[in-house]
Amino acid sequence: MNVVVIGPRGKMGRLIAQEANERADMHLVAGIGPKGRPYIGKDLGQVAKLGEDIGAPVLDELQAVISDCDVIIDFSTKEMSLEVLDTAVAYRKAVVCGTTGFTEEEMASFKKAAEVIPVLYAANTSKLVNVMVKLLELATTAIGNETDIEILEMHDRWKTDAPSGTSKELGEAIAAQLGSQLKDVAVYGREGSGSRQAGTIGYHSLRAGDIPSSHTVFFGGLGERLEITHHSYNWECFAKGACDCAAYLTGKKPGFYTIKDVLAI
Question: Is 139 annotated as a binding residue?
Fold first, then answer.
């Protein structure tokens, strides 16, 4: 399939370009960067540090190359992602989006777009993280009503949204098993005095250095606790997952897809 990568200079965009370039089932058509960047007009191989020119340009106008692609992979900023989504709908092209930090109203635009094009949204494209979600659902079913549930997530200093999109997905999975919605039971940080409110899900976000990604969910009982944790050591697992998501959309009808569809879990 022919692929356009959004933000090929970013930490995820660069790795996605590298992964796609190495796959036999993918061909890189172009990269799209923000206007005014000094690398606009250069070869994608140079911009994404692939070690060679690959004959694909980096441009600042998606419309210039969108007709040549089958799918757009976008891990950029929410402002840029919303623009990409509008363009994809206009040209009827599939989109994989891993950008986080969207409001409920902004996420609704992805659901609306899915009426016209295949849209796969995944806040985290790691296979192991999504196995973690299944473990959390099992644990919540067994002990969720008799333990205190807290989520600790850590990321690098450049992470702009808090809590992370992944930790929200973890919380949503837990809340669903409890028969609630995350927005009704989440507590973000604590200060002052007062005992913990039963039935809530506590959130704590750390930002420091170059920590790639770490999520731990605590099920605190009396005299014991269960911890379910995922650590990523680099971003390559997310890049591979993003390309797997793109490959999954081959031949798919318009609709809203998730990483669970890709992994069949």
Answer: no
- The CATH number corresponding to 127-232 among 3.30.1330.40, 3.30.360.10, 3.30.230.70, 3.30.1050.10 equals 3.30.360.10
Q: Per residue in 156-188, pLDDT tens?
A: 999 989 999 999 999 999 999 999 999 999 999
Cα separation, 67 vs 45, in Å, equals 21
Domains of the chain: which residue ranges? 2-121+236-263, 127-232
Tens-place pLDDT, residues 73-125: 999 999 999 999 999 999 999 999 999 889 999 999 999 999 999 999 998 89
Reported as a single tens digit per residue, the pLDDT across 121-144 is 998 899 999 999 999 999 999 999
At 70, the amino acid letter reads D
| CATH no. for 2-121+236-263 | 3.40.50.720
* Cα separation, 80 vs 107, whole angstroms: 14
- Give me the active site residues, please: 155, 159
Task: Determine the Cα–Cα distance for residues 89 and 262; give it in Å rounded to an integer.
Answer: 22
141 annotated as belonging to a binding site for a ligand: no
